[in-house]
Every structure is written in C-alpha cells, then in structure tokens.
Amino acid sequence: MTRVFSGVKPTGHLTLGNYLGAMRQWAAVDQHRADALFCIVDLHALTVDHDPARVRRLSRQAATLLLAVGLDPALCTVFVQSHVDEHARLSYVLECVATDGEMRRMIQYKEKAARERERGGSVRLSLLTYPVLMAADILVYGADEVPVGDDQAQHVELTRDLAVRFNQRYGHTFVVPKASLPTVAARVMNLQEPTSKMGKSDDSGPGIVYLLDEPDVVRKKITRAVTDSGREIVYDRQERPGVANLLEILAACTGGNPEALSGVYESYGSLKKDTAEAVVELLSPVQERHRALCADPGYVEGVLRDGAERARALARPTVDAAYRAIGLLPAASDTGAEVVLNAAR
Length: 345
Ligand code: AMP
Ligand code: TRP
Fold this sequence. Notes:
single chain; 345 residues; mainly alpha; Rossmann fold; Tyrosyl-Transfer RNA Synthetase; 2 domains; two-stranded parallel ribbon; 5 strands; binds adenosine monophosphate; binds tryptophan; Trp-tRNA-ligase; ATP binding; tryptophan-tRNA ligase activity; ATP-binding
C-alpha cells in the first residue's frame, strides 16, 4: 500500500491556504487511498523566534483542526513530531549526507533569513538545517508520496536527492518519495498582496483567511481583497494576480475551474461576494467540528498518544537501518542488532 506523509507547522493559526493547498486533500483523498501519516511538526516551529507557550497552544490547536477537517484516526495516523525521537536521530544522519551549499540554496531559507536580518535579528542555525529535518520526517516512514502545497516542492526535491545519495553511498535504505501537489489552489495568495503566498506566519492579518475566522470576518477580508487595474474578469496569474487568486479560491471551493469561472462574472463585486460565500460555506462544518472537539480535549490527547506510538514503531527500524548502513556500531537493543553484530564478526 502506498505510504503518504505530510506535516503542518504550528507557527501560526491555520489558513485557507493550508486547507486548500494541503489539508483538504489529506482528508478527502489521501487517508482513504493510502497508509497515511499526518504530523504536527513542532520542532520546525522552533526555527524562528518563538514563544514556548504559543507553540504549545498552536500545536494543540493544529491537532484539533486536523481532526476537524476530517482526518479520522481509524484511517490514518495523526501525531506530534517531537513525540517521536526518531525524526531528530535520522536528521543528524542526513546532515552527514547533505551539503551546506545545498541548504543555502533553499528559497524558503533565503527569504526567511533575509527577512530576519532586515529586522536586525539573528538567524537560527536550525533554519538552515530545517530541510534536512523535513527530509528525515519523510524518509523515516518510507513515504512514497508527500502531499504538499507548491511552496514545499523544493524541499521534497531535496529529500529525494538525499535519499538517492544515501542509497548510492551506503546501500539501499530509503524509499525515494515524490511530492503530490493539488491541481487547483496549490498556492493561495495573500488577499492584500496577491504576489505573495497566504502564509500563516506573516503578521498582515487582513490578507489572510484563517480557518477559525467568523463568517463576517471572512466576508470582510474577501470583500476588501486587492484586485487589479482593468475591469474585466480574466484568469491571468502573471498580469492579474488579485483576480486570479479569487477565481482560484472560488474554483477550489466549488469544484470548478478558474478559467471557466472567469467567463461567468461581470464585476469584481459579484465575484467577491460569491467567493466569500463559498469560503464561509466550506469552513462552516470545519468550525462546527472544531468546537465539538474543543469540548473533549481528552479525545484529542488520546489520538496523539496512539498516533505517536504507531509512528514510533514504524520509524525505529528505518533509523536503526540507516545507523548501521552509515557505519555506526549497533547497540544491543537495536532491532536486528544481533544479526549485524554476528555478521560483522
Ligand atoms: P505550513 O503552514 O508551512 O506548515 O504548511 C502546511 C501545508 O500547507 C504545506 O503542505 C504547505 O505547502 C501548505 N500551504 C501553506 N500555505 C499555503 C498556501 N498559501 N497555498 C497553498 N498551500 C499552502
Ligand atoms: N516544511 C513544511 C511546511 O513548512 C512542513 C513540513 C515539515 C512537512 N516536515 C514535513 C511537510 C514533511 C511535508 C512533509 O509547510
């Protein structure tokens, strides 16, 4: 059976971009067709300036929202990254396969590091090594596919490179995964700045629709979305990014096609109105389930406990195999250690 792995970072409240670009697909498709694991990647939230209490709160909220969007613990595994030590263990091994040049070429690193330096802050070393930890997240489970939004494609490419390199140097150990991107809304843009991604860690609230925004807040944000000069409604991501973004959001919510929808509308006003209503309708059941789950924190905790236990059992043998392959002496307690020790004699 195909193995799927994906993750979400608890660095901010989850957005419509997270939902349309990734989470919706996890719930509607991936958990039904594959052995799927979904992870709240809290270690990744420590790569930028952070408040410990906020990361804890957002991790709990992300877990609750993953269940609210429809992930079903009977069908898939939902867990928290830091509950499974194997991610960090494998990450170190992969750091011995990756190069610093490779890390410095990552777009997300360059952008975030530049932003941090502009603010006069310092860049955490973990921001540079972050893609290696992400590679470990994926490779430790032998995932075949990684459903993500477009912004993560480069990191998955790097993961493939590291897996291939490790396998060539030290013997076949890892499955070489591939990214799967949604066909519509792979990159939902900020409503106020339609040339930048709608990212949850940005602090410009009015351009970001959060999954837990009240209907009136959603309506207001979409009504105030920046559109382009020119009045006719055409779907052109380069020249008309504001309108293209609304058409993509509407298409993703209603199952339509942005190109076809562009012919339906004659004014920005009616496009915005329909888009706002489509988003409100899409989010309403998620918010309702979120409220119900919040009333039962013990349930969410139980899901995370069981998820981590299953994840650990899957991850351990892969890390042990990677340790052995790269030349580390097995400890007596490792899976299969005796066999290797005997073979080495
Ligand atoms: P993150 O918020 O960076 O943890 O991302 C979690 C998942 O949501 C990843 O698969 C991202 O690629 C996806 N994602 C985040 N923001 C967007 C966006 N604006 N449009 C589409 N997908 C997104
Ligand atoms: N880097 C991803 C993001 O910012 C989150 C992530 C971490 C992830 N590890 C992963 C996604 C493994 C997919 C697979 O969105």
